[in-house]
Every structure is written in structure tokens, then in C-alpha cells.
């Protein structure tokens, strides 16, 4: 038996364009209970990154794929097919890299190999929606002599930040930021600069603040005003807004704010013409606000959520969905006097005529530093298999 262990050194979340580095260790374990041990032989091992696309048959109409070719290759036990047995289509893959050929491991011996590959910058982000899924995996295939191929799959998450593709790094290394106390390879230098550039671009895009004021009105008059200081956020940030009902003519009894994503299929791929858009709620705030002059809310954008993006098949957008319940009467009629004594008690009315209306405010959600997103990732940095 040989144990194969794959470990992502920095975590399971990456930006498109970064270099993924994985250390793969092959071990011939020496069991204390075994009386005799022998050397083990591996014929070869190879690794490749691929992105699997899966669509709901009820919502997405896709053109026929050439999936039959993969089925034919899967029957051949000497062919390395990373997506063998996977659902959906392989829409993106990197060239396979051979780790070794003819590896002999003595009892208790282990060998480690480093796999490095730049993630394609023009690929889709990782996404698990109601209609489509984009899933990235690093697949390591290895074969013992006279045995079938075994596959070790290492899932990871990819964030896409638009604008990195068009950036040209300086050719003069003397003017490029670097750490003189560390000896880095050229690929790692560029990778670290890419992460620093992404962090800087995100900071610039999400730190711009300007006052946005919106009047909240229905058919009967003004309810109040809503204030928000920015509409561009990173995942992990809080969306903060305030209400001012003191200037309103119509009493607001209750409001709710939902942080939602809108998943829509491009028209040419819709299963039915005019099919509804899919909505997902990530956070919600609800409050009763009768006789309240001002109020506020804070909705966190989960680090595990997907920033907005668009592909040729699906589009994901973010929005704030507001729902208001207003009174059909004046504010004074919302309370009644309980007694005629000196101590006055005011109580709510048993029945009240109300109106409801909703409003949607689009916002933009960008990625964040992949190291921060790694802390809440559902994927493990270490995966193993025994062959």
C-alpha cells in the first residue's frame, strides 16, 4: 500500500492568475504489526487542474457536448483523464504535468514533489448556484505497476477580479517592490506582486465613499429617506445603511432589508422563454419602526459567497431588497387612549389599514484577499488517498 498526500501550502482559495502550489508526498508506510515488508513500485504520476461545469436540466438548455470522447478514453486504464466520473462538462483545463516515472519506495520511505501551475485568468469563478455550478479541482493520477489508475482530487476555490488581465508588470526588477531578505523565484515574485496588486485594486474600488440619498415614497406620499455611503463592497464587508422617517408624511410600521443575489441565465440558454430569475438571500434585517425617527441596519456579506460575475451562460448580481409596511392612516390614529384618569395609557389599535411596497437597490460585490477567504472555506488544504 502507498499513501498519497496532497497539501496546498497557502490554503484552498486563490485568485485567477495566481500560481497554485501543491506538495504531493508518496509514502510506503511501515506498519508496526507487519512481520515482513517489501518495496512498492509506482509506474507514474501526473497532475492537472480542471474546471467542471454542471447545469440544471430544468433551467438551462445547453448545446450537445463531446462528452462521448471522454467516455471512450475512460475505458482505457492507461490514459490519464482527470475528470473521469465527474458530472457535467470540463470547460477549462491546464496541460498535464508528469511528476515522475518508475518510483520505487522502500518500507518507511517517502518522496515529495512540488506541483506549480498558474490558474487561467480568463476562467469563471467558483460558483454553486441554483442553475449552474463551476467547480475547480486539482486531480493527481497515479498508477501502480499492473494496476488501474487511481485519482486523488483536491477541490479548491477560485476568485476572479477583473482588471488584473490587462495589467503589465514592470520589466525592471530594480524598481519593483521586493524583500531583500528573502530569496524568491521569479514565479513566486510575480505571484506575490499579483496578490498585492489585487489587494490594492480592491482597496481603491471599495474605499470610495459618497453620500447616496434616496426618497422612499408610495402612491400616497413620502415615507422617509434612505442613506448609504457606498455601493461597492468586498465579500466579508458589512453593508450599512440608515433610515430617516422624521420627514415622512406616511407612517412606516415595519421595514425589512435583505441582501440578495440574482442568478439569471442568458436568454439563448434559457430552458423556457422568460423563465424567472433565481434569488438567494444571504442576510436579512427586520424592524418595527412606528414612531421611530431614525433607524439603521448592518448586513454582513459572507466570505463564502461568490462576488458578482458574468459568463456566456449565467450572470450573478447583488442587490438590497427593501420591503415597507406603511399605515393607511395618520400617525395619531395608530394609538388609542386607554382611560380618562390622570395617568394616561396609550395602546395600539386592534385593526389597521396598511399598504406594502418593495424596492430594489443594486450594489456591486467584489472578491477579497484569498487568504481571508481561506479561513471560512469548506475545502480542506490536505487531501489523501491510499493505493
Task: Annotate the secondary structure layout.
Elements: E1 3-8, E2 13-15, E3 19-27, E4 40-55, H1 67-74, E5 89-93, E6 97-105, E7 110-118, E8 127-128, E9 132-144, E10 149-159, H2 186-207, E11 212-218, E12 221-228, E13 232-234, E14 238-244, E15 252-265, E16 278-288, E17 294-300, E18 309-310, E19 314-327, E20 335-337, E21 346-348, E22 354-366, H3 370-374, E23 382-386
Parallel strand pairs: 2-10, 13-22
Antiparallel strand pairs: 1-3, 1-23, 3-7, 4-5, 4-6, 4-9, 8-9, 9-10, 11-12, 12-14, 14-17, 15-16, 15-19, 18-19, 19-22, 20-21
Describe the structure.
Helix content is 9%, strand content 47%. It contains three helices and 23 strands. The longest helix has 22 residues, at 186-207. It is elongated. 26% of the residues are buried.
Q: What is shown here, in short?
A:
The chain has 387 residues and is mainly β. The chain contains 3 helices and 23 strands. Helix content is 9%, strand content 47%.
Amino acid at each position: 500500500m502507498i499513501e498519497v498526500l496532497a497539501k496546498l501550502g497557502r490554503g484552498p482559495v486563490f485568485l485567477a492568475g495566481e500560481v497554485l502550489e501543491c506538495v504531493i508526498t508518496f509514502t510506503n508506510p511501515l506498519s508496526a504489526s507487519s512481520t515482513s515488508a517489501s518495496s512498492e513500485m509506482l509506474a507514474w504520476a501526473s497532475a492537472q487542474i480542471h474546471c467542471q461545469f454542471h447545469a440544471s436540466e430544468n433551467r438551462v438548455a445547453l448545446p450537445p457536448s463531446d462528452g462521448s470522447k471522454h467516455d471512450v478514453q475512460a475505458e482505457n486504464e492507461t490514459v490519464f483523464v482527470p475528470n473521469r466520473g465527474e458530472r457535467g462538462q470540463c470547460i477549462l483545463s491546464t496541460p498535464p504535468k508528469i511528476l515522475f516515472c518508475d518510483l520505487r519506495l522502500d518500507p518507511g520511505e517517502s518522496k515529495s514533489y512540488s506541483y506549480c501551475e498558474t490558474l487561467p485568468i480568463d476562467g469563471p469563478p467558483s460558483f454553486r448556484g441554483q442553475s449552474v455550478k463551476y467547480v475547480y479541482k486539482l486531480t493527481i493520477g497515479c498508477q501502480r505497476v499492473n494496476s488501474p489508475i487511481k485519482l486523488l482530487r483536491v477541490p479548491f476555490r477560485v476568485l476572479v477580479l477583473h482588471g488584473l488581465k490587462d495589467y503589465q508588470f514592470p520589466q525592471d526588477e530594480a524598481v519593483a517592490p521586493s524583500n531583500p531578505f528573502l530569496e524568491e523565484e521569479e514565479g513566486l515574485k510575480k505571484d506575490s506582486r499579483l496578490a498585492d496588486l489585487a489587494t490594492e485594486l480592491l482597496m481603491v474600488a471599495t474605499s470610495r465613499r459618497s453620500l447616496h440619498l434616496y426618497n422612499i415614497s408610495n402612491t400616497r406620499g413620502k415615507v422617509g429617506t434612505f442613506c448609504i455611503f457606498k455601493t461597492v463592497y468586498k465579500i466579508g464587508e458589512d453593508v450599512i445603511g440608515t433610515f430617516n422617517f422624521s420627514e415622512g408624511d406616511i407612517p412606516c410600521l415595519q421595514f425589512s432589508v435583505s441582501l440578495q443575489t440574482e442568478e439569471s441565465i442568458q436568454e439563448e440558454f434559457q430552458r423556457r422563454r422568460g423563465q424567472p430569475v433565481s434569488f438567494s438571500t444571504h442576510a436579512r434585517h427586520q424592524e418595527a419602526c412606528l414612531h421611530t425617527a431614525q433607524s439603521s441596519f448592518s448586513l454582513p456579506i459572507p466570505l463564502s459567497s461568490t462576488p458578482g460575475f458574468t459568463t456566456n451562460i449565467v450572470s450573478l448580481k447583488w442587490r438590497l431588497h427593501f420591503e415597507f409596511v406603511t399605515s393607511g392612516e395618520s400617525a395619531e390614529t395608530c394609538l388609542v387612549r386607554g382611560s380618562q384618569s390622570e395617568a394616561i395609557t396609550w395602546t395600539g389599535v386592534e385593526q389597521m389599514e396598511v399598504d406594502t411596497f418593495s424596492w430594489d437597490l443594486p450594489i456591486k460585490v467584489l472578491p477579497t484577499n484569498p487568504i481571508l477567504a481561506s479561513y471560512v472555506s469548506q475545502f480542506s488544504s490536505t487531501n489523501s488517498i491510499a493505493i
